[in-house]
Protein: Developmentally regulated GTP-binding protein
Organism: Trametes coccinea
Amino acid sequence: MTLTLKRLRPPHHTAQKNKATEYHLGLLKAKLARYRAQLLEPTTKSGGAGTGFDVQKSGDARVALIGFPSVGKSTLLSKCTHTQSESAAYEFTTLTAIPGVIEHQGARIQLLDLPGIVEGASEGRGRGRQVVATAKTADLILIMLDATKSEEQRRLLEIELDAVGIRLNKKRPDVVFKRKTTGGINKTVPLTKTDEKTIRTILASYKLHNCDVMIREDITTDEFIDVLIGTRKYIPCLYVYNKIDAISLERMDQLAREDHTVVISCELGLNLDYLIERIWEELDLVKVYTKKRGAHPDLADPICLRKGATVENVCNGIHRSLAANFRYALVW
Ligand SMILES: Nc1nc2c(ncn2[C@@H]2O[C@H](COP(=O)(O)OP(=O)(O)OP(=O)(O)O)[C@@H](O)[C@H]2O)c(=O)[nH]1
Ligand SMILES: [K+]
Ligand SMILES: [Mg+2]
C-alpha cells in the first residue's frame, strides 16, 4: 500500500492569494462596469440603447411583467385588468407594451404587459433591450415564470436585469460619496468583504483622486462599484410562478414557501386575489385624503403615493399647476 502525502499550503498563503484575487477582480469589474454604463447611456441616434416602450406612466404606481415567452404574462393582464392582451400558445405573441389598470383599495396600479425576453436580451436580442429599459421605469417588477419549466429560467432573467443596472430586492448601499478638493475614506463599520486598498484603487481608476467617501455598512466591492456608477435602480420584485395547475402539489408547496414568491394559475384564476394583495404590500403605498376646513375627508377617494412622498408630490397628484401657487398644508 502506498500512502500519498499531499503538501498543504500554509493557511495564510491561501488567504493572501484570495485577497490579491479580490483586489484585481474588483478593479477589473470597476472598469467593465463603467464601460457598460456608457453603453447603456441613451444616445441621440437610433433612439438610444436605454429607451423603453413609449407608454405613458399613469395611475399611482407602475408594475412591469418580465418573463420568457409564453409563461402567461398576457393572460395575467387580461385576468386582472379590464384590458385584453392577446394570448396564444406560440412564443412572442405580444410585440409591444400593453398597459392595464388594477384597481385595489382606492389605488390605480398600472400593470404593463411586455414582450417575452430571451437570454441575451440586455445585449439587444429581440426586443429585449426595450423590455429591460421599460423594466427600469417600474416601481415593482413581476418576474413571471412557468412553474412547469426548470429553475434555471429565474437565474437567466436575473442576469439580464442585473446587466442593465437593475438591483432586485436590494436597498441602495449605505455609502455617501462626494467630490471634493480634498478628502478620504471614512467608515463606521469594519469591512470584511472588501478593503480600503481595493476601494482606493477603484477610485483612482475612475480618476477620483479627491473625494469624500463615508461607508456605513459592510459592503462588497460590487456594491461599491454600484455606488460609484450612480445610476443603478433598486426595484422590489415578486417572483410569480404561473401554471400551477400543471405541477404536483409538492412542487407547488415548495415554490410557494420561497421568499418574494407567489404561485398562481391564470387559466384557473387561482390565487390572483392574493397576488394583487402582495403587489399592494410590495408597493408600500400610502393613502392621503384631502379635506375642506371643518369637513370630513372623503375616505372613498384617496391620493395614493409611494412612501417618502412630499407635499409637492400630493399637489402634483391633484393637478400639475397646483404646486406653483401652493402656500401651505396642514398634515395629520
Ligand atoms: N396550463 C396553463 N396554461 C396557461 C396558464 N396561463 C396561460 N397559459 C397558456 O400559456 C400560453 C401562453 O400564454 P400567453 O399569455 O400568451 O403568454 P405570454 O407570456 O404573454 O407570451 P408572449 O407574449 O408570447 O411572451 C397560452 O396558451 C395560455 O393559454 C395557466 O395558468 N395554466
Ligand atoms: K404566447
Ligand atoms: Mg404576451
